[in-house]
Amino acid sequence: MNELVHSTRAVKTKAKAAPRATTRLAPVSRTNDPARTMAGILEVATAEFAAKGLSGARIDEIAAATKTSKRMIYYYFGSKEGLYVAVLEDSYRRMRQIEAELHLEDLAPEAALRRLVEFTFDHHSSNPDYIRLVMTENMERGAYLAQSQSIQELNVPAIQSIRMLYERGVAQGVFRPGLEPIDIHASISALTFFNVSNQYTFSLIFKNDAQSQQAVTARRNSITEMIVRFVRI
Question: How far is CA 188 from CA 112, 162, 185, 227, in A?
Fold first, then answer.
């Protein structure tokens, strides 16, 4: 009998001493993606600099909007001015990347020129922040753009592309000789840029709705035709 009691007590003691099984939740993984973080900062910073210029933009607001910190922004870009230069570089890079996908070399010279003008018009119309950034940098007298080697390198292929399509047109007797590719580029930029940069003042002064779809389409066609006639023989 004593042995039975002793055995029962031993079993109970072991049962009490046995550890209880616990369910552990898997740790939440955190993705460390610097490229994605930088892209988000650039997107918000583009709008901030475009709206307020270099002097008016605030790193605090960019940090808050991106749920990051000033320290992280400075870690990636060095300074407010460094972020501004990065925004300029990103804006030019995106435009030139899309421009390179037009495959102008596969088109007849006049068709290629038309496509280039139409693309530039559409890009500027749908990216007013880009126009404001360029206006801001002109107010800065190009001081920060001059610090960027990549922006200057990005524009070399753009001029080279115009040179190639223009020279093809001259060789085929379609375009008149004696024009400079940079001058053609300047004319395209001037007309398409003005359409966005001066849209509000122009509409108010002349009491017309320059932003209606009909007006935008008509202006697009007009600018394209002006450039083609300027170059055509």
Answer: 13, 11, 5, 7
Average pLDDT over residues 126-142: 96
C-beta separation of 63 from 72 below 8 A: yes
Q: Do the beta carbons of residue 85 and residue 144 sit within 8 Å?
A: yes
Task: Evaluate whether 115 touches 102 at the Cβ level (below 8 Å).
Answer: yes
Structure tokens at 43: 């997107």
> CA 30 to CA 33: how far, in whole Å?
9
Its pTM stands at 0.82
Mean pLDDT of 182-187: 97
- How do residues 53-86 score in pLDDT, each as one tens digit? 999 999 999 999 999 999 999 999 999 999 999 9
Question: Domain 86-231 sits in which CATH superfamily?
Answer: Tetracycline Repressor, domain 2 (1.10.357.10)
pLDDT band at 9 (very low <50, low <70, confident <90, very high): very low
Q: Give the contacts of 44 (CB within 8 A, at least 6 positions apart).
A: 62, 65, 66
For residues 81 and 101, what is the distance between their CA atoms, to the nearest angstrom?
Answer: 31
Q: Which two tokens stand for residue 17?
A: 């001493």
Distances (CA, A) of 82 to 88, 90, 192: 10, 12, 29
Q: Cα(188)–Cα(95) distance, rounded to whole angstroms?
A: 14
Q: Where are the domains of the chain?
A: 86-231
Q: Are 109 and 166 in contact (CB under 8 A)?
A: yes
Position 120 pLDDT exceeds 60: yes
Q: Point out the least confidently predicted range of 24-28, 94-98, 126-130, 208-212.
A: 24-28
